[in-house]
UniProtKB/TrEMBL annotation:
Belongs to the GST superfamily. PROSITE patterns: GST_CTER, GST_NTER. This is Glutathione S-transferase family protein. Residues 7-87 form the GST N-terminal domain. Residues 90-221 form the GST C-terminal domain. Pfam families: GST_C (PF00043), GST_N (PF02798).
């Protein structure tokens, strides 16, 4: 049996965004059943959890007889490869798919997360105002470069949806949440195509259902802080 980890609860802006939705999405796409282990702050900080996810994040994927995998991109690549779905088995297109998966995580996501950090986590108004223009401009530049590279095509590689599109569309959820896609109509249409899949809709619905059924107290933040202190 496959088990993935997911947060019991997150703030409203993060619902539907937490990266376990990527693991759920690919598992739904290939039709593999899985269980979800719900995690709180104490779990994330524990040495037992860190042995499986060194950075105390979600998700990890655990499966009998196999090493525990962490990092959503690695999970997506592994599941797609083993299932023989959404990634070519060999050849140039496989190499291109892998390039775009890494590009989503390395060349797009960090720039969007810089904007998210300013919007959601910076408390000092002056510092926020000073930093925001630079990080927004950098994110906009990367989105423009992506739009040029897409060049009106339906999908990033070949004639069908692949994990390159799964990962890129997932990363672009951050941009849409931050209203960064409003000036990039091609990317909005592209993302809409990617997210109009039953496997994605179920992944996000399941994640949101878990979050909606819990509250902040379930995360045990205070207990985790006391233990760390």
């Amino acid at each position: 049996m496959i088990t993935i980890t997911a947060m019991k609860w997150v703030l409203a802006f993060a619902a539907g965004q937490v990266r376990d939705h990527r693991a759920r999405w690919i598992l739904n796409e290939v039709g593999w059943s899985y269980e979800v282990r719900l995690i709180d702050a104490c779990d994330l900080a524990s040495s037992q959890y860190r042995k499986k996810q060194p950075f105390g994040q979600v998700p990890y994927l655990e499966e009998d007889g196999r090493p525990t995998l962490f990092e959503s991109g690695a999970i997506v690549i592994d599941v797609a490869t083993r299932a023989g779905m959404l990634i070519p088995a060999e050849g140039n297109d496989r190499s291109l798919v892998l390039s775009w998966v890494i590009a989503a995580l390395n060349s797009i996501e960090p720039y969007l997360m810089n904007v998210a950090e300013v919007e959601y986590f910076m408390e000092d108004a002056e510092q926020k105002e000073a930093r925001r223009p630079a990080v927004v401009a950098a994110a906009e530049q990367r989105l423009s470069q992506l739009e040029i590279a897409l060049n009106g095509r339906q999908w990033l590689v070949g004639d069908a949806f692949t994990i390159a599109d799964l990962m890129m569309a997932s990363v672009l959820k951050i941009a849409r949440r931050l209203d960064l896609l409003k000036s990039h109509s091609e990317l909005m249409l592209y993302q809409d195509r990617c997210l109009d899949r039953p496997a994605y809709r179920k992944a996000v619905a399941d994640q949101r259902a878990t979050i909606d059924s819990h509250e902040m107290a379930d995360m045990r933040f205070e207990e985790a802080r006391r233990t760390a202190g």
